[in-house]
Amino acid sequence: MWSHAFEKSVGLSLLGLLSTISTLYVLHHLFTLLLIVAGVLIVGRKMLAHEHLDLTAITLLLLFAWVSIGMLYTPAPWTWSKINWSKYSLFLLGVLVLTLFRKYPAWRQRALNGFVVSMGFVLVSTWANVWFVLPWSATKTPGWGLTHNVMYDHIIQNVMMSLLVVIALVRAKLTPKLSTKVFWGAACLAGIVSVTHLSSGRTGIVLLAAGLGAALVSLLPKRGHWQAPLILLSLVAAIALGVQSSPLMKARVEQAISEFQRSDIDNTSSIGHRIYNYHLTAALFKEHPIIGHGTGAYHTEVCRFVAPPAACETYQWHPHNQFTLFAADHGLIGVGLYLLLIAALWRHARHSSADEHRPVLFALIALLIADSLINSPLFSARENQFFIYMAVLLVSLNDRVRTLTPTNPS
User: Fold this and answer.
1) Could you tell me which of 21, 116, 84 has the C-alpha nearest to residue 319?
2) What share of the chain is helix, strand, coil (3-state, %, to 5)?
3) I need a labelling partner for 120 at 20 to 30 A (CA). Which of 103, 172, 301, 310 fits?
4) Among the residues of 245-357, which ranges form H helices?
5) Tens digits of per-residue pLDDT, 352-410?
């Protein structure tokens, strides 16, 4: 009886962990704490058991270990190194959550459905913002052609919305029921428009294209991979047409082109800021290319290269690129481990036979790569939690031994 009650408590915490990433942040931390306690009580050494230590888990542990070693030689003060170590400690928590999902497989699909429901709430609220002022939404100005985001930041909302679009697309394709197919198809279209027409973020367009492209290619039959270039070109064309029909996004794309053209004389714009940061992190990387400067060193060491020095605060938070951030702080070893993590996720998806979850894992990998090229998702708290916890959930859902048949999407 105690064992059953404890299992249900852990399962509900796993469900809550994924359900509150997009909405209730305080509850999300509470569920994290409960899962840590559960891990100490019932997982312990089992987390390092052979059946749990696949390449994904090993790479997460190695990343956490390397970040911890970086604490020993970093020149950064404790205030900066502590911030980085605490954010990257989710690598270790990811292994714990992966172990719990494998120990309690019945809660995997429930956790994914919890995420879908919570993002469905965000999607409905985003559309409702066009006509109403909602007390829980970050934006408070109704009207078409304006940006509407429920979450505090449009970037993280578009990251999660892009994955919801993929989940809806896959479920619409796989379900045999026409009514269910229409429902998920409508949800997919509403999610796409929320990114292209109801958000001012250009990042969302890039992520949406990456996620959809990866999912569509993975849905092709083995003998149909020759169609992949045509599908990707069609996707790019469709998104380009969508942008042209959105005055909000069209203006933002034109602004991006202008910012890129002026990046050599204006490094304070969104595009100029990123390009300037690439030069700064490259200079840091050249000094210690193998092991990097140490955990959190970027925030202080970058100030030696910023001109004028008084502008350092503008650039020292993060370089808007996860690869260059790892390169500056953790060198080629850190970048190599991050690439190994991406490869481990890709390998797991490639060998999966779970029709419903395989395309979603491929899409998450594409989202992570695309976001890492224009942002620092593993340093940004909410994105870090989303990518790590969603990755281990999808890995468990794609386990070859445990996922023998696809879950009915209806």
Assistant:
1) 84
2) 70, 0, 30
3) 103
4) 247-261, 270-287, 298-301, 312-315, 322-350
5) 888 889 999 999 999 999 999 988 899 987 899 899 999 999 999 998 644 334 444 44
